[in-house]
């Protein structure tokens, strides 16, 4: 399953589009394979995740060296989410992917714990819900921190007093989008001062709003470049434009800082500019004391912080009164510098909420939107009328080169989680969608239902599960990230484990470390069947590639009785062919490995007895002790009595013992034992006549030499019998 | 860019097949040689497998080692496995050759069930044979389990069709308790043999039975060019894609042991396919995206959305210039 592409149809269609008009044909992506056309044949194969192997074979019968080429295409890449890819490189994205796993896993386990608790108490309590959004907020903060750029500038640096825009860290759209979702969907504490949060957000991410149209940020950074060469700033219209722009979006610290660049502050003045300076300073004071309805103000931010609504209304009316008073002041007549007078008056008009001036001062509709909350509708609470206002601002300032952020905000303001989800998919990629769904559903019942409803037309998948599967496939497409895919797959109740099984079975088994890693994952997710299969696959691989010991080890781990029995059988065959001593060591090791714990494997039991017999025989022939000789014949009798000893081994066993039987002066076997062996020999002679008799490459006189040895043993045994 | 060249195939390459994890590739050539590539541009092994052109290479399931089956233009089929002794470099060994007899072997596919390996071969006279591997360690002992004709109606048994190609797809389920089943369709002059049918092994009578035919009344006899059975990671129904000259049909097949009508089939989409014949169909590991290749030199990817509507998701053009 691929992530949505920009052009093709979407997996999750907008529910607002009931007709589902045929999607436009997807863009055609050329494959660079280096084979001369014409192409006679194309073969494809999926490997892990979204990797597609494409083999193109040349149709020409020429004598070219290369007649075909195999290209691996990663369909997850260059498939939407272009905005994210431009900003964040592969390694950085991987850092985010790995970093978000613990937070995601913790949230899932908390969800399960809450669900278990609710099931125990047979109720869905309100407090449970209340607890939940705090967990999500914690999760959101953790992820938000992760999205901060690690290459941010160190805090201890000498600040240039003429620097207008303080550089903190490189803002990314991903972080901007994440914060936007957090503001609107998770943080309940913020609802009473939502507009201020939006203003703060804009201060951080204004530069990302558009690449083609202007923004306040652009204006200021352009002016910053110009500033070095400016002698008298107040004569430059861009100075005043920058000031009004910064003020319109509430960047009070920037405005006050810039006002201090004004020439009237300079001490070595030739002309009399006290009044002018007084007016500049008066505006600066008004700007820095603007009342703001918010719980706190971070250091460096200006304004008068009001935590309660009545305080704010009171402070606001007082402040507005001061602004109006200054606007009507008589001092303006004494201000000789025309541009200063006009510029300052413009700032006052902005503070008084003059729509015309605000519209002129802002560049992007979102800036105009924010300025409305600051100066025209300062008492707005929560969502109230936001969508309508946004539409009005868009009409006033239509924008063409929109980024994903504005689309996202549109979706949020229109209270349409489907649009939000679609924008996330299209612009920010599968990581964002998978992780942001938690935010969407934190406190929004509609989104919760939309995300979790099972779709019968799609095999019973829910949207949430689908997106997690898509993301897991993206992770599976890379050898460095596939290991974290199981976390997401295991959070999918319907089909996640099915995909996890396939993913684990697709991992290569040539490398033992890799196998151990895969098996550890199997253990973690209790996939015993899968681990058994993997062990069997590893076993056969090593067995076939000359590492018999490793092969047997894996077969044993997998409790693969069929194959172990078969291996034991192969060993018999080898033993049956030749019992030469140089061979003994080799198969003795294998028998050792096969172990004795597999009781049902009859062949193995035989092999173990046979090994004991051979060891003992060697010792006896080396002439160490008479005890060894006695022990050997005991093993021989046991073997011959045991029904699990294959008939074709009877003769080799007896033949092996001939030297032993012959070399001892006193008989090793008593009459009964010898008779048993002679009977077996007789049985063997009869069997030899049957067509299915298995010959065992012993010399033709083997049978008669065994018979002779047994006969002489019998004779001696009879004589010794008491 | 996201494309990475992984191998260069030698002259005369006619077909290729990947192993289960997609990291090994076997390519058959018109001179009867086979080359195996291991994530290196040049082959790790190359040997003469047949006297005539190789038309199809298929890997066996990894549970039986690294092994391939080669279908030769002369109608025979050979099985090869990679083996090594101690520290020596691995080499490929011939395990078994299947003769076509009076007809040609057209196609082969392997299925795993109840820890035994099954092989289905399709012949140019419309025969289908099912073999079972007798030895779990060696690939040389096979037993013929069944001989079938891809028809549901015994009346149509008369006469032998002339088949150009056959498409076989095993049910990809690995479960121990699952029923064995596969789908097979022919490209022949006989409409009865053509239509794709699902065969299932009936334990009670130890025989293969045609369960169901995938085809609407008017399309039943269409020549089948490719069949692919999607992996099922938890859907209540199976998805099978069948390519004919009319396009690619996507079928939902429900196996409900409880209900009276045990099987239900529904053609949920007929995708336009390719401009020309469809060569190959391949499902991704989740069974949600279908890749198709065709004589127009395109690779197309198909997906359903949440409403179950199938659409073309992406197109890869392989007719590109020589760069």
TrEMBL record, chain A:
GO terms for biological process: mRNA export from nucleus; positive regulation of DNA-templated transcription; protein import into nucleus. The keyword Protein transport applies. One of its GO terms (cellular component) is nuclear membrane. It holds the Pfam family Nucleopor_Nup85. It comes from the Eukaryota. Keywords: Membrane, mRNA transport, Nuclear pore complex, Nucleus, Protein transport, Translocation, Transport. It is found in: Nucleus, Nuclear pore complex. Residues 1-28 are annotated as: Disordered. GO terms for molecular function: structural constituent of nuclear pore. Residues 1-10 have a biased composition (Gly residues). The keyword Secreted does not apply. Functions as a component of the nuclear pore complex (NPC). Belongs to the nucleoporin Nup85 family. Component of the nuclear pore complex (NPC). This is Nuclear pore complex protein Nup85. It comes from Lolium multiflorum. The lineage of its organism: Eukaryota, Viridiplantae, Streptophyta, Embryophyta, Tracheophyta.
Automatic annotation (TrEMBL), chain B:
WD repeats lie at residues 271-303. It is found in: Nucleus envelope. One of its GO terms (cellular component) is nuclear pore outer ring. InterPro entries: Sec13/Seh1_fam, WD40/YVTN_repeat-like_dom_sf, WD40_repeat_dom_sf, WD40_rpt. GO terms for molecular function: structural molecule activity. Its main location: nucleus. One of its GO terms (biological process) is protein transport. Keywords: Nucleus, Protein transport, Repeat, Transport, WD repeat. SUPFAM superfamilies: WD40 repeat-like (SSF50978). Pfam families: WD40. Belongs to the WD repeat SEC13 family. PANTHER family: NUCLEAR PORE COMPLEX PROTEIN SEC13 / SEH1 FAMILY MEMBER (PTHR11024), NUCLEOPORIN SEH1 (PTHR11024:SF3). This is Protein SEH1. It comes from Lolium multiflorum.
